[in-house]
Structures are given as structure tokens and as C-alpha cells.
Amino acid sequence: MKPYKNKINRIRSFALGLIFFGFIIMYGAIFFRENAILVTIFMTLGLLSILASTGVYLWIGLLSTKAVQVVCPNCGKHTKVLGRVDMCMYCKEPLTLDPSLEGQEFDQSLNRKR
Ligand SMILES: [Zn+2]
């Protein structure tokens, strides 16, 4: 398994993780209900991570407008490419917008300008 994922999908899973994290922390506050300070801290942390994930979702929205929509040559579906190299959202086919990188081993570092 390659560790690479489509960037938009990856950010989306990160935002989802933040929401879960927030809810778990807020749920954890129940165990400290005797202690008002701890409850406040846990609730605030939980709320903050949920707010953060909302921010990340907004960021995805912004990124999506910048992403280039292409038809994947492998599975024929419409996918979004972010940066110089990215992966198909559906079949994980490496895609590039830069013809000079075509056929090269997929590498996340290719996104960085050299
Ligand atoms: Zn594909």
C-alpha cells in the first residue's frame, strides 16, 4: 500500500477526524462532571476541535475551486487534481498536470518546486 492519497480526500479525512476527536473529548467531560473546571476545559477543547474542522471544511471548499478537474485515464471518472501531482480520488492512479513529470515514479515531493 502506498501512503499517498488524493489531497482533497486526505484533508477531508483529517477534518472528519477532528470532528470525532472533538466529540470524544466532549464525551470525556462526562467522566469529570464532579469537577467544573475539568468539564469546562474538556468542553472547550472539544468545541475548538469541532470549530477547527469547520475551518478545514471551508479550506477544502476553497481548495476545490483551485483544483483542476480532469478525467482519469485509468477509470474514466472525473477527479480533481491539486498541485503538480495528485492521485485519482477513485482508483488512486497517479496523475500529473506537468507533461515533463509524466511516467515518473509518483512522489509527493514533486509538488515542491525545485
Ligand atoms: Zn481513476
UniProtKB/TrEMBL annotation:
The lineage of its organism: Bacteria, Bacillati, Bacillota, Bacilli, Bacillales. InterPro entries: UPF0295 (IPR020912). The chain crosses the membrane at residues 12-30, 36-60. The keyword Transmembrane applies. This is Zinc ribbon protein. It comes from Psychrobacillus insolitus. Keywords: Cell membrane, Membrane, Transmembrane, Transmembrane helix.
